[in-house]
Amino acid sequence: MILVPDTSVLIDGRITSMIKAGEYKGATIIVPEAVIAELEAQANNGREIGFSGLNELQQLCKMAEEKTIELKFSGIRPTLEQVKLASGGEIDAMIRSIAIENAARFITSDNVQAEVARAKGLDVIYLKPQITDFVPLAIDQFFDEHTIAVYLKERISPMAKKGTISDMKLVKIREAPTSEYELRMMAQEILERAKRDPDGFIEVEKRGITVVQIGSMRIAIARRPFSDGMEITAVRPIVDVTLKDYTKSDIITKRILSEKRGMLIVGAPGAGKTTLAQSLATFLSDSGFVVKTMEAPRELQVPDQITQYTMLDGSMANTADVLLLVRPDFVIFDELRKAEDFSVFADMRLAGLGMVGVIHANGVQDAVQRFSDRVDFSVLSQVVNTIIFLKQGVITKVYDIGFTIKVPEGMGGEMHLRPVTTVSDHETGELTLDIFRYDGETIVMPVMTITAARPAPLQVQHVGQPVTPREPMRAPAAPAEPARKEREKESDERPGWKLNEKEIQHEIGRYTEGFVDVQMLSDTKAVVYIDDKDVPAAIGKGGKNVSAIVNKLGIGIDIKPRSEFDRQQAQAPRGDEEYNLGGGIKIQTDKKQLTIVAPSDSGKIVDVFAGKEYLFTATVNETGEIHLAKNSSIAQEMIKRYTNNEVIKLRPV
């Protein structure tokens, strides 16, 4: 019997196993030079399938030496032009011609090659993908029921990550180091399985790196020049959970089944994002929705009715074009990495599809920053309605994204009203982040809501800007002693504040020669007093300098002249006080809050005036109160105007 194998058979690896089983013992095998050239080119490009095919060829040579088979080489090497046209079938045609010349049986595991060969009148042996009777892989010996990942590298003892998502440890699983030969044999076996197994895919094949998905196991094979030595990393899930097994699952199901169909799953690597995504996909499919996935690599373990798509012609944008024609109800995008991925996610969500995205980030601020750098912040609330943050497999927070017009928190009185995207805690309603444009840049500002001294049923959103008159500059004066001691006492109770104060003093100190007085209002908010003459330099043109410091430190900074601090110390009331404005309107102050009491205007939107001058607009809550943070510029302006004997009036809008 004369056999001519093509490239796919040698990569597949089954021809040697069939000979060992006695099926083709004594046969003459003719290997076309075109096959050797193709395998050599793939190996030179660092592709693992090239090495796998060459290993299979070496096994055939050994069998020929043992007189098990007769091995011959025939034909000519393809030209450079033919190699360039390999994808069009030039190399395949050269391989078939050798079978025709030698009247041989043509053996292939490529379906297209088999059909063309039959059309040319050849006697074809087509090796179909193997479906059953798979023996365990060599790498399976390193796994047990507690193993999450295995790390193998030449000249290094095998290591494994074992335990649970919340409690993982890296342990040595064998004293003897792995050799390059052992890893090569494992890599060849893995590639052969990926070719035969219907649940196996070669997801990435580039110079020096191959990523394979076999069932639930993702395997990365790295070799020189991409890595400094041969390495195999295998990762698999160890738990199978449903959406109901998660805390806060009722919140997620309620939002995803409503109109809030833009969702992000956020967490650090290994936090359990993919597990939650596949649980959510299964839940939506079981709820009667058409669900598809976009993955590279395809690693979600989902029911067969959920079709898993990967990149089309190397681009997720092409995949999105197809999905818009398929019209699913929901798409699970695992995961968002490149700038194109974020744009595709936004376009599909704005087109009306329900979208669930997975993104690597250590916190919600990092995730929003990655998104806002690639998608205009003003449409962020239309693209993403809900952010789910996971830590060690547990949903710790659920965030809402909204959009409003206001003065961003922590930016002081020099900033005007502007569009702001807000991120708030779903359960408490507390504001967490403000996203806005400042000096041509998108700023993601962490904020903290100051808790009022008295309960208020409604949180008032101020939609006004105080008009701050310019004051003549005065000589610097030392801060009042009681206030300084109180701040020092609070800083002593919070050591982290001291570190933040030093960092802010260092950064602001580059723009001023005088003393930098920092008052930490919260973990993410501070007021800085410096010499009047240094304020413009510290803020910078259009606020550029202070914005850079805010982004670097992650703390909202309000820069004020020292003379304003002196005036506040002279004018601010000591302890709880009450001012009667007449007409049933009062101003009450305590340590943290200024409250305007106007029971006659309960539930109304009012304009607040000092004399004839407009100050701001606010909503009076149901108990007839307007709550302001005492240290805010609006509250300080109110107290100053009252101290100057100006009449404070409220006028319903």
Category by helix and strand content? alpha/beta
Number of strands: 32
Helix content: 25-40%
Estimate what percentage of residues fall within beta strands. 25-35%
What does the radius of gyration come to? 34 Å
Count of DSSP H/I helices: 20
Low-confidence stretches: 449-484
User: What oligomeric state best describes the polypeptide chains here?
Assistant: single chain
So what's the overall shape? elongated
What strand order characterises the main sheet? 15-14-16-17-13-18-19-20-21-22
How many angstroms separate the termini? 97 Å
Global mean pLDDT = 82
* Biggest sheet details: 10 strands, mixed
Task: Please tell me about this protein's structure.
There is one protein chain. With 653 residues, the chain is an alpha/beta fold. The protein is built from 20 helices and 32 strands. The longest helix has 18 residues, at 48-65. The N and C termini lie far apart (97 Å).
Write the layout of secondary structure elements.
Elements (H helix, E strand, L loop, with lengths): L1 E4 L1 H6 L1 H7 L7 E5 H12 L3 H18 L4 E5 L5 H5 L5 H12 L3 E4 L2 H9 L4 E3 L20 E7 L5 E6 L2 E6 L7 H17 L3 E7 L2 E6 L2 E6 L8 E5 L13 H8 L5 E6 L5 H14 L4 E5 L11 E3 L6 H11 L3 E5 L4 H12 L3 E7 L3 H9 L7 H4 L2 E6 L2 E13 L11 E8 L5 E8 L2 E6 L34 H13 L1 H14 L8 E6 L2 E6 L4 H5 L4 H10 L2 E6 H10 L5 E6 L2 E5 L3 E5 L7 E6 L2 E7 L5 E5 L3 H11 L4 E5 L1
Parallel strand pairs: 1-2, 1-4, 2-3, 4-5, 13-17, 13-18, 14-15, 14-16, 16-17, 24-25
Antiparallel strand pairs: 6-7, 6-12, 7-8, 9-10, 10-11, 11-12, 18-19, 19-20, 20-21, 21-22, 23-24, 26-27, 27-28, 28-31, 29-30, 29-32
